[in-house]
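Q: Okay, next protein. This is Transcriptional regulator MntR from Rhodomicrobium udaipurense. I've checked the sequence twice, so it should be correct. Can you predict the 3D structure?
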Amino acid sequence: MTSQNTNCNPLIDADLQSASFRETRRAHRLEIVEDYVELIDDLIAARGEARQVDIAERLGVAQPTVAKMLKRLIEEGFVVQQPYRGVFLTALGKNLASEARERHRVVEAFLLALGISPETARRDAEGIEHHVSAETLEVFRDFTARRTP
């Protein structure tokens, strides 16, 4: 007996599908980096420096988790750590934080324009901002601009 699902969409081209999955995996890897540099930037703006203990508290993770991630961020050139001081962004880190913050702002504005509650829009934008393509982001930006008086 052969089972055939007529409600299922046909498979897309394997190369297209694998490219989509590769892009999603890349976005997931970058998501944590972006969250850290954005938070570090916010802490520096508010307190003059970002301390490991403050990062851990804000992210709701243990300090050893933060220490491991900071090591990665240092290796990748996003932050520098000064003895007896906090963590500071490099120019590369500041640029990444700025780009992530702008994507978040555009996505959140788009969701608000659709009528999503501010709390839900803020929370959802936090996830979407890391996965939205430049093309989609531009459409969000244009849509929001047309709806703003």
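A: Here is a summary of the prediction. The radius of gyration is 19 Å. The chain is about 70% helix and 5% strand.
Q: Noted. On to the next one.
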